[in-house]
Amino acid sequence: MSMDNDHIGNYTHETPAAQKKLLEQVLDYMNDSFPAAYVMTSVNDGLRPHTAPMKKKLETLGVPFVYAEYGEGVPSDSHVFHLNLYSENGKRCNQAEADFLHGLVKE
Question: Which of 15, 28, 91, 103 is deepest in the core (most CB within 10 A)?
């Protein structure tokens, strides 16, 4: 991977100013019509700090959501831990997310 890669900040835990601005602008477009959300992160994810403003915005808007953190004590469970089929935290996260989504379906 080249150090000129535009996404290198994702791996070095440095967020370029332009990317940070885009992440923050998303919150400006959220309103109380935003759908219920399952917000999850790993405690080992360099993007974890971005979940706090999302949580705050959802709370302010009164949008129903579930917030969950995974990976405590398992450093290998980082940004994409939920895609690792061998990760116990990944399995738990995916099941919890599926349960949340199933709970939204009206039969």
Answer: 15
